[in-house]
Automatic annotation (TrEMBL):
<dbReference type="Pfam" id="PF01203">
    <property type="entry name" value="T2SSN"/>
</dbReference>
<keyword id="KW-0472">Membrane</keyword>
<keyword id="KW-0812">Transmembrane</keyword>
<dbReference type="InterPro" id="IPR022792">
    <property type="entry name" value="T2SS_protein-GspN"/>
</dbReference>
<keyword id="KW-1003">Cell membrane</keyword>
<comment type="similarity">
    <text>Belongs to the GSP N family.</text>
</comment>
<dbReference type="GO" id="GO:0015627">
    <property type="term" value="C:type II protein secretion system complex"/>
</dbReference>
<keyword id="KW-0813">Transport</keyword>
<dbReference type="GO" id="GO:0015628">
    <property type="term" value="P:protein secretion by the type II secretion system"/>
</dbReference>
<dbReference type="GO" id="GO:0005886">
    <property type="term" value="C:plasma membrane"/>
</dbReference>
<keyword id="KW-0997">Cell inner membrane</keyword>
<keyword id="KW-0653">Protein transport</keyword>
<dbReference type="InterPro" id="IPR000645">
    <property type="entry name" value="T2SS_GspN_CS"/>
</dbReference>
<protein>
    <recommendedName>
        <fullName>Type II secretion system protein N</fullName>
    </recommendedName>
</protein>
Length: 261
């Protein structure tokens, strides 16, 4: 009798999974859109909840195109919902694996993305501009109760450049490697910023503890082909060693820093 009940429940679960898999995505996306009409707009929805596509999404002012998802049905038997996400085109794209547990915890693995600086230009202060391409390689991100529990990844800024009223330096290619554990008290995030031999040599270590105490230490080396006006400008703020490398050594509190911003 117990075996009958066991296989009966398993069969019922499989039936429910199959039923959900055949639900069209369009009505569900429409309901979400009705709940948050000002911050979320979707067009060109096709497929099912299990395997679908959205031609374009506008969320909080950001536009994403050609979004595709594929749910891994067998993941439900391990206590989570695993989804393969893809979005974008040749210019900007995203490829990620996301898993959501029944308790609400989120795990993001093997995420790659390519974004141009156009997406971030509106956040720059007046008179400052920048250009280049960002490439994100996020190996792991764990969210518990909506907060980061751990992460590890790398952000590359390719063909990086700045534009200010005083100078327009080319920065070359920069890479920021990041790791972190915890959130709030006891949290520790670390990073390393380096160049790959371009006009600006960079080797800086960053550390953030308890989401407040920060340390930035390392060196900057303007090479011979670096923008001369910018070289003179930053040399006036940073001390240099006998080899002409500029020393960076800053530490303090984010809470104190925010008072001046």
């Amino acid at each position: 009798m117990k075996q009958v009940i066991k296989y009966g429940l398993l069969g019922l679960l499989c039936y429910l999974v199959l039923l959900i898999a055949t639900i069209p995505a369009a009505p569900v996306i429409y309901q979400i859109q009705q709940q948050v009409p000002r911050t979320f707009q979707a067009g060109g929805v096709s497929g099912t909840l299990w395997n679908g596509k959205i031609a374009q999404v506008v969320a909080s002012g950001e536009t994403l195109a050609n979004i595709r998802w594929e749910v891994k049905p067998l993941s439900l038997f391990t206590g989570e919902l695993a989804i393969k996400l893809r979005a974008g085109d040749k210019e900007e794209w995203l490829d990620s694996k996301v898993a959501v547990s029944f308790s609400g915890d989120v795990s993001v693995e093997d995420t790659q993305a390519r974004l141009t600086f156009n997406r971030f230009r509106r956040f720059l202060p007046g008179g400052i501009d920048a250009d280049g391409v960002f490439r994100l390689d996020l190996e792991h991100l764990a969210l518990v109760n909506g907060k980061p529990e751990s992460f590890k990844g790398e952000l590359k800024w390719r063909q990086a450049s700045l534009s200010t009223p005083l100078a327009r330096p080319e920065l070359g290619n920069l890479t920021l490697q990041l790791t972190g554990n915890g959130y709030g008290k006891g949290a520790k995030y670390q990073g390393t910023l380096k160049d790959d031999g371009g006009p600006l040599g960079v080797d800086i270590k960053l550390e953030l503890s308890d989401l407040d105490k920060y340390k930035v230490k390392g060196m900057i080396e303007p090479r011979d082909n670096f923008d001369q006006p910018t070289r003179r400008l930053i040399s006036g703020f940073l001390p240099s060693d006998n080899n002409g490398k500029l020393k960076v050594d800053q530490r303090g509190s984010l809470k104190t820093l925010q008072q001046f911003l």
